[in-house]
TrEMBL record, chain A:
Keyword ATP-binding on entry: yes
Keyword Ribosomal protein in annotation: no
UniProt GO BP: peptide transport
Localization of this protein: Cell membrane
PANTHER family, A to Z: DIPEPTIDE TRANSPORT ATP-BINDING PROTEIN DPPD, OLIGOPEPTIDE TRANSPORT ATP-BINDING PROTEIN APPD
Keywords (A to Z) from UniProt: ATP-binding, Cell membrane, Membrane, Nucleotide-binding, Transport
Span of domain ABC transporter: 2-256
Origin species: Vasconcelosia minhoensis LEGE 07310
Name the record gives this protein: ABC transporter ATP-binding protein
UniProtKB/TrEMBL annotation, chain B:
Recorded superkingdom: Bacteria
Gene Ontology terms describing biological process: peptide transport; transmembrane transport
Protein name from the UniProt record: ABC transporter ATP-binding protein
Gene Ontology MF, one: ATP hydrolysis activity
Alphabetical UniProt keywords: ATP-binding, Nucleotide-binding, Transport
Family membership noted in the UniProt record: Belongs to the ABC transporter superfamily.
Stored InterPro entries: AAA+_ATPase, ABC_transp_ATP-bind, ABC_transporter-like_ATP-bd, ABC_transporter-like_CS, Oligopep_ABC_C, P-loop_NTPase
Domain ABC transporter: 9-256
Organism of provenance: Vasconcelosia minhoensis LEGE 07310
Length: 323, 327
């Protein structure tokens, strides 16, 4: 359904060119949930913005394709002109943004914001917009939708705002949903409710979901496959179960070791040393993890281009010396 | 054994209400009582909006109390007005580490300025050389390279900013360090480093922690005892292993069942519906009523009080979750 191939994005800044994404690739099938995990600054959100065509003006796609195919459309998202992207966004693919409070229009009633999406992308007569928007509010299990329709975002709790965002994103039954940290700032009980909701709706509608998060445990619970990113590279991509039982990239293994878990003692919580490399540096090594890697061996790891070996048809790792 | 020495912090029936409109009061913190021993780490968990932050602001005396008492060491803090507290000698004894390391640092202060600010104001350490020596010592203590002391917040990474915030808080050798979600804005990799640092500092400096978080995995690692808060009330309190392995309050049970993990597939116990309104709550209805899977008649006739269920383990529920599994 979506195939991203060899995607590279650069940002021109006053102090140099930031190579934010380099040769990123992954695919997603209808109905599948793919998690994209990594530290902040690893390029997760840049990728989401690139796919939607809402990248900051300083950003430039320097290579790659993003083929998006459904029953009704087949396009390369990176080549489409803005006018046709406008038709696609909100209808075929849509996004749940990180912070619902800043993503919603603060001076427009939430019900109307949903009606706006419907007005843009469907042929529904004006008279039916309200009832359809109310249906959407009910489908994301907002209690008392009639009353909440006329609420402003500031009148609603974080969990409710997040559900409004979801209703907004799903109003036109998109085929692909990009959820960028949909639950940061929500507490665990609300998080579980929101995630279950997205999962149920995805199953009902055969919608593909990209879940961007830095919470490995959350990704483990809800994703079929996981793509691990580090400093603008995809370092490993695998089905969830094999990623956690047999991580093959040293970074994945370290991420897992650094995540607190219910049955982990303090001694088992091992921080990842070092920082992300400076993506502006002219002499970035082929493997951007090499500075932090325990297994780094210059003669092997500095070969170009970086190995992107398939260890099995589903399991790809970008490492010369996989674990 | 716990009663052999007076507690470092004792909170009695602490209440804070905020007026909202005519005759309406939002009960942010409602009749909260607990104690914290010297050298103990207590976790405070609960969902957003349950009053955790208000409680923290009351204890650190950034807010005036509506009713109730706060005893700290040998003083009563609750009667001191917020305006007077900065001049109070006990101000140095309670320090706070804030949630977002970026927002809580003055962007125009270098790391050195930030760390020495409380020393200049509240301690006898004065004079350029002494201050510099103390700042260097604190930087070493929190693992901040000394050459970064001259940098401004925007020149520091998230982990380094968190270290500056911690150095500022421990600069006056406080007896109680209140940590308000210190790691929620950090990446997993940095979070692990900061957690190790906090555990290490506690051991070396013998501070007590009041650790506020909604990340239960983190609380479990760092705390001896946990207080679970729901809509302004403490609904359960007990030793950390007890709370995690044998929660007795239905809310705690739901909270723990919702922790994501990558080893086992947890089955979250759904709390359906929205929380009750904290504005003029009915004092005889349990706060969880309506979301609680139990919810019997008694629950909306009599407010359950915190009762001792086993040693040091209290829950406020008429129908506590069975502890059959408890050994």
């Amino acid at each position: 359904m979506l195939a991203v191939e060899n995607l590279s994005v650069e940002f021109r800044t006053r102090s140099g060119v930031v190579k934010a994404l380099e040769a990123v690739g992954f695919t997603i099938q209808p109905g599948e949930t793919v998690g994209i995990v990594g530290e902040s600054g690893s390029g997760k959100s840049v990728m989401a913005f690139t796919l939607l065509g809402v990248l900051d003006r300083a950003g430039q796609v320097t290579a790659g394709r993003a083929l998006f195919q459904t029953d009704s459309v087949a396009v390369d998202l990176l080549k489409e002109p803005e006018s046709s992207l406008r038709q696609l966004r909100g209808k075929e693919l849509s996004m749940i943004f990180q912070n619902p409070r800043t993503a919603l229009n603060p001076i427009r009633r939430v019900g109307r914001q949903i009606a706006d999406v419907l007005r843009c992308h469907t042929d529904l007569p004006e008279a039916d917009l309200r009832s359809k928007a109310l249906d959407m509010l009910a489908s994301v299990r907002i209690p008392d939708p009639d009353k909440r329709f006329d609420a402003y975002p500031y009148e609603l709790s974080g969990g409710l705002c997040q559900r409004i965002m979801i209703a907004l994103a799903l109003a036109c039954s998109p085929h692909l949903l990009i959820a960028d940290e949909p639950t940061t700032g929500l507490d665990v009980t609300t998080q579980a409710t929101v995630m279950n909701l997205i999962k149920d709706l995805a199953e009902q509608r055969q919608m593909a979901t990209i879940l961007i998060t830095h919470d490995l445990a959350l990704a483990a619970e809800y994703c079929d496959r996981i793509v691990v990113m580090h400093a603008g590279h995809v370092v490993e991509s695998a089905p969830t179960r094999s990623l956690f039982t047999h991580p093959r990239h040293p970074y994945t293994a370290k991420l897992i070791a650094a995540t607190p878990e219910p049955h982990k003692s303090f001694a088992e919580l091992i921080p990842i040393g070092g920082n992300l490399p400076d993506l502006k540096a002219a002499d970035l090594p082929p493997c951007r993890f090499s500075y932090r890697c325990d297994y780094f061996e210059p003669s092997v790891c500095n070969q170009t281009p970086l190995s992107r070996e398939f260890l099995s048809p589903q399991h790809q790792v970008a490492c010369w010396k996989p674990l | 054994m716990l009663n052999s020495q007076p507690p470092l912090l004792q909170v009695k029936n602490l209440t804070k209400t905020f007026p909202v409109g005519k005759d309406a009061h939002l009960h942010a913190v409602d009749q909260v009582s607990f104690t914290l021993q010297s050298g103990e780490s207590v976790g405070l968990v609960g969902e957003s909006g349950c009053g955790k932050s208000t409680l923290v602001r009351l204890i650190t005396r950034l807010l005036d109390v509506t009713a109730g008492e706060i005893h700290f060491d040998d003083a009563i803090l609750s009667t001191i007005a917020v305006r007077q507290f900065p001049q109070n000698p006990y101000r140095a004894g309670i320090q706070l580490v804030f949630q977002d390391p970026t927002d809580s640092l003055n962007p125009r202060f270098t790391a050195y300025d930030t760390i020495t600010e409380p020393i200049k104001r509240l301690s006898s350490v004065q004079g350029r050389q002494q201050l510099q020596a103390r700042a260097a010592e604190l930087a070493d203590l929190v693992g901040l390279p000394q050459d970064l002391l001259s940098r401004f917040p925007h020149q520091l990474s998230g982990g380094q900013k968190a270290r500056v915030g911690i150095a500022r808080a421990i600069a006056l050798n406080p007896k109680l360090l209140v940590l308000d979600e210190p790691t929620s804005a950090l990446d997993v990799s940095v979070q692990a480093v900061i957690l190790h640092l906090l555990a290490d500092l506690k051991k070396r400096l013998g501070m007590s922690y009041l650790f506020v978080s909604h990340d239960l995995n983190v609380v479990r690692l760092l705390c001896d005892r946990v207080l679970v808060m729901y809509l302004g009330k403490i609904v359960e309190s007990g030793p950390v292993e007890q709370i995690f392995n044998h929660p007795r309050h239905p809310y705690t049970e739901a909270l723990i069942s919702a922790i994501p993990s990558f080893t086992a597939q947890p089955h979250p116990i759904p709390l359906t519906g929205e929380p009750r309104s904290p504005i003029n709550p009915n004092p005889s209805v349990c706060r969880l009523y309506g979301r609680c899977p139990k919810g019997e008649d008694l629950c909306h006739q009599v407010m359950p009080e915190l009762t001792e269920l086993s040693s040091n383990h209290q829950a406020a529920c008429h129908f506590p979750v069975s502890s059959d599994l408890a050994v």
